[in-house]
Design goal:
This protein is α/β, with parallel strands linked by helices. The protein folds into 2 domains: 158 residues, no CATH class; 118 residues, Glutaredoxin, CATH 3.40.30.
Amino acid sequence: MKDLIDELPGIELPVGEVTNRLDSMWAGDATGSPSAFRASQMNVVLHFGWEVTTEEAQERFDAVLQFAQRYPSRIIVLCPTRSIKDGSMRAKLFSQCYIGDSHREMCCCEALLLGYEPENCGYLANQVSVWLEPDLPRYHWFCGVPGERIEQYFDSLLVGVRRSIYDSSYEAEDLSRLAWPEPNLVADLAMARLLPVRQAIGQFLSGYEITGLRENLASVEVRHDPSMSGEGLRLMEWSRGCFGDCQAGEAGAEAQVAYATQALEPGEQDCSLSLEFKYTDGRYFKWRKFSEGSLGEIEASLGKQEERITTRVKPLGPEQTIAEALFF
């Protein structure tokens, strides 16, 4: 079985030669040399774990390259390797220039790939520090790295990181439960992907007073496609945060609002994600996103009249999702 670093693109080099090769590669004094289109704004570390497949790694590598075309970045990709047993490391260098609608629209991206033995946490942090663009902010994307290993990086690899991100719809464990030193500097890509959903729902509900939406609320239910468990969890957390710890019929009722999140059954998957509010006085609010296309639907009876409207939920592109998670 090949290591991830063997499957991802790039030219293999000795680890110590990568930065020198970068310097010579971008050197040039011609007005239109590639170096004129290379101006990194940040460092982005894409960190893979053992269980990540070649296809998954390539998909995320492509996504971070798309991100770097909009937000010029030095990309560092960390790939655990089974072939290394002595603490040594392997390296590859990838670079590519992307031309826009005109030849004057160009962006040059670079990615430094490091194959490492996961147990050597200290050595890994030292090598990453050598490869970073100095004085630029650093961001870290975890993909398939076990939580217990991430915790080992708190005092080394993650020192000084502006924000760490992960995808709860992909990870096998809930990384939000880790004892992050600064939880406010951790973001979930599933929450970022919900931006169009939150905008569509919020735009409709903004026509109602929050006190009316809270009054007599009995239950909130989120249902999701099995592949969207992270989106389901984050949509529920967002809904709960909007309502606060309100009671059913706040004016004196004792029963707590029931919150539930569950996966859709195979026969129910005409939609991929849904949200429903039920009230003890017969009112209701239902939103769902259809499985195909970018359309959704709202059905509601919140005291004014029964309403049924179509909503458009255009999904974010990979680079937009990463930007939303990193910056907002």
